[in-house]
Amino acid sequence: MTETYAELRQKAANYYAENEVAPKLEDILNKMFFEKPNDIYGRLAEFFEGFAATPTITSLSAKKVLDGCGSTGLQCSVYATVKNHPTLLSTTEMSLEKELTMLPFQQQFISDSQITSDEIVERSCTHIVETISEKLNNVSLIQQEEVDQILKDWINDVEYDKFVFSNHLGDDDDDHSRTPTPSSGKKKKAPSAKGKAGKVPDKPVPPKEAMENRLKGCSAVSLVSVAVLKAAASFLRKPAFEHLRHTMSVVSGTAQECEKSVISMPTTAITVMSGGKATPGKLNLVKSVFAIANPGWTVSESMTNLSK
């Protein structure tokens, strides 16, 4: 029994010595003796919080929401291990309006030409909760570059299937996409403009621009990247733009220069849209008022005054 107690005592001494608990505790106790804080345990918690392990991502959750315009959106929540407990650190939303006419979240090609918003959200949630969450498990929360690289590798793998399939259908697509050439027959003469000076010809409506091809899963990847960035900023107790600035400076190797420079934010502006009364046979009159805030105001003051 004595030997067992001695062994446990030695193991405990070695454990606390490896983690340098005794020197750190002695240091903060000496400081508190002269500081005499009102909240002793709060001061201890604040001191040891700086030695806490960096949080790691445990899981991601996603669900369907509506954005500010009422369009279908996606919400992503980031959970990380903070002080040995899973904690919700951020919740971010992103609109999926531009995804409604595309097929971005498919591991395999589907021949259906139309897809509903519910199917897009369901596939996005599936990719975030299952695939992306598994890849980001136990990844450091503040290593934004590593997170983005993992997301980039994943979307490249998804896009590869689409690229291979498009090569097989390249010939068929070219046949349908060719523009018809004018016939070699005689051209009809345009009618004389005499006597029709008062008639103004209708202005042709320009055709819509072709939609840009979107990477499969790009919205889910963008949402997760922003959500992780906000989660790290929340843990570090700093604004998201400041954490993003620091992350970009570390990647570019200009961290020391950015610390000395002053952060400047763009001036807040707001656009007010108002529609007139409908007139039979006429278009509704729409007014657009663009208001710019005073450069001396803060962002909160600008939004409050402009909203009034």
TrEMBL record:
GO process annotations (BP): glycolytic process
Catalyzed reaction equations: (2R)-2-phosphoglycerate = phosphoenolpyruvate + H2O
Listed Basic and acidic residues bias regions: 199-211
Ranges in coiled-coil conformation: none
GO terms of molecular function: magnesium ion binding; phosphopyruvate hydratase activity
Gene3D superfamilies named among the record's database cross-references: Enolase-like, N-terminal domain
Domain Enolase N-terminal residue range list: 57-244
Signal sequence bounds: none
Region Disordered, residue ranges: 169-211
Protein name as it appears in the record: Enolase N-terminal domain-containing protein
Species the sequence originates in: Ciona savignyi
Lineage: Eukaryota, Metazoa, Chordata, Tunicata, Ascidiacea
